[in-house]
Design brief:
Layout: H1 2-7, H2 9-17, H3 21-35, H4 38-46, H5 48-65, H6 67-70, H7 80-107, H8 113-123, H9 131-134, H10 141-171
Helix pairs in contact: 3-5, 3-7, 7-10
């Protein structure tokens, strides 16, 4: 089915717009990092249309960067050693965004209420009247941000490891 869909001229045209998966990985990593920089987050949050386009681009790049690992078409997947290198590069490229959370928490601990609110709204919808009324009083944004960086690293690494194991099991 995947091969049949890819043969349609409209789909071929759309797929030509996407960069190769390795370039998508680099582009995703840069845009993902920039999204977590407070100045960029502030700018994007002021223009919801641009923020939605930015998130859509991140979403599409994320799918495309996983193609060499999880593609249903085996001709689009990388081989064993190439997969390991690609997974390692993926971990290295995503790491700066995760480390940004950890370092920011250690340096200033999210003492800025504006940035704390903006960051909280990444996970909690804007329709919620008061973000901080949802959080218990002893809630410490410094540790929350640090744990977010650690969880981002762990989830990415776990996702890659599980995907590689599934691909290896499928290839047997």
């Amino acid at each position: 089915m995947f091969k049949a869909i890819r043969k349609h001229s409209a789909i071929k045209g759309i797929l030509k717009l996407f960069p190769p998966p390795k370039a998508a990985l680099v582009a995703f990593a840069i845009l993902f990092f920039m999204y977590h920089v407070p100045v960029m987050l502030n700018m994007l949050s002021q223009f919801s249309f641009i923020q939605h386009i930015y998130l859509l681009l991140l979403f599409l790049l994320a799918f495309h960067m996983w193609t060499p690992i999880t593609s249903p078409d085996s001709s689009h997947r990388l081989h064993k050693e190439q997969l390991k290198r690609y997974a390692f590069k993926s971990s290295i490229f995503i790491m700066p965004a995760c480390l940004l959370f950890i370092v920011n928490a250690l340096v200033n601990g999210m003492d800025n209420p504006f940035l704390a609110e903006r960051t909280a709204h990444l996970c909690i919808p804007y329709q919620t009247t008061s973000t901080f009324s949802l959080l218990p009083p002893p809630f410490n944004t410094k540790y929350d941000q640090m744990m977010a960086g650690v969880f981002m690293l762990g989830m990415h690494k776990t996702g890659i490891k599980l995907s590689l194991r599934l691909v290896q099991r499928h290839n047997r």
